[in-house]
Amino acid sequence: MGTDRGEREHESSSSNAAFTELVESLRVSEARYRELFENANDLVFTVDFEGRFTSANRAAEETTGFSRDELIGADISVIVPPQHLETVREMMRRKIETHERTRYETGIVAKDGRYVPIEVHSRLIYENDEPVAIQGIARDISDRKLAEAQLRNTVDELERSNQELQQFAVAASHDMHAPLRRIVDFGALVQARKASLLDDEGREWLDYIVSCAMQMQQLIDDLLAHSRVSASSKPAERVDCASVVRNAMSNLADAIQESDAELRIEQLPIIMADRVELVRLFQNLIGNAIKYRSDIQPLIEVSSVRHGDVWHFCVKDNGIGIAPEHHEWIFEAFRRLHSDEEYAGTGIGLATCKKVVERLGGRIWVESELAQGSKFFFTLPISRRP
């Protein structure tokens, strides 16, 4: 009898100790939660399903300017402005129906009239497995919104500057072409009709003047083409790349005939892109392959292969090649490997190719060794939204 009684007393004592320990554990947990709740940098609050505040932390008081006593029991419309109110209530209704965590951006109006953009993360609070309230954690995103606005302004300003630069390039090209054309034309007339009146040195100087004027014309044309590769989106269209290459070859017909170049064009895809820019891209790459040919007959091969969601194109030649240390900077404007005496040019062609490829959502690079020919690779997306 005494033994049973002692065992019961021991069990009761153990149960009381366990209960006391549980209560203490809950007290500690609640204290920790309360500390986190009060000291959080974000606004933490709860609202009932009618949209009334049931709790708010210190950050909520500081951001809104309302005291806790003013917030608790008040409808959310006390801080949510009319333009956002229906959206916020709809988010609450959806939360109650779906029980899903949600994230959305909205804004509140503080007691002093300040508008504060916030990002809200919300979840349901349960009691006995039943949802009873909504807890929200809101972060003041004023700095982010200011940065986004500044970025938009910067982008808008850059777009305006680009448009102005393009307009200037077109105007400058037109205004400069006329006098240059006169220099070339009158220089040619002097060469044809008055060359006999000049000595050898005079004829050499005249040839130099005409040559420089023609180089300046080419530079203006290349700069204009480079500036016309628009940074803004243009409507994409279905483009047959084989047709594009044929177009580029037609534009290069004289150079192809003069160099006796052989071109091998493999089957090429149809993609969504800007046809004019694609013609410019292939024309520059094929033209470079012809220009920087070696002593043997130029052989230029154009091919493509699909890798995942992009097409890999290759323009391969058997020309003089490019040293590996030059592979990166040859795509920079006005960077040239050779003098005008060796190969005439402006140093803009490959920079334009890079701009076109990046404008179309791809990248471009070269694999080459001196005297081993070159392979220019570039990627283009399988599809692009029109």
CATH architecture of the largest domain, by name, is: 2-Layer Sandwich
Shape: elongated
Q: What Rg, in angstroms, do the CA atoms define?
A: 37 Å
Q: Level of helix content?
A: 40-55%
Looking at how many chains there are and whether they match, the oligomeric state comes to: single chain
Number of domains: 2
Number of DSSP E strands: 12
How many strands, what sense, and barrel or not for the largest sheet? 5 strands, antiparallel
The fold-level CATH name of the largest domain is Heat Shock Protein 90
Main-sheet strand order equals 2-1-5-4-3
CATH superfamily of the largest domain: Histidine kinase-like ATPase, C-terminal domain
Briefly, what CATH class of the largest domain? Alpha Beta
Strand content: 15-25%
Number of H- or I-type helical stretches: 10
Mean pLDDT: 86
Written as H for each helix and E for each strand, in order along the chain, the element string is HEEHHHEEEHHEHHEEHEEHEE
Query: Segments where pLDDT lies below 50 for 5+ residues?
Result: none
Distance between the termini: 92 Å
**Structural class by secondary-structure content:** alpha+beta
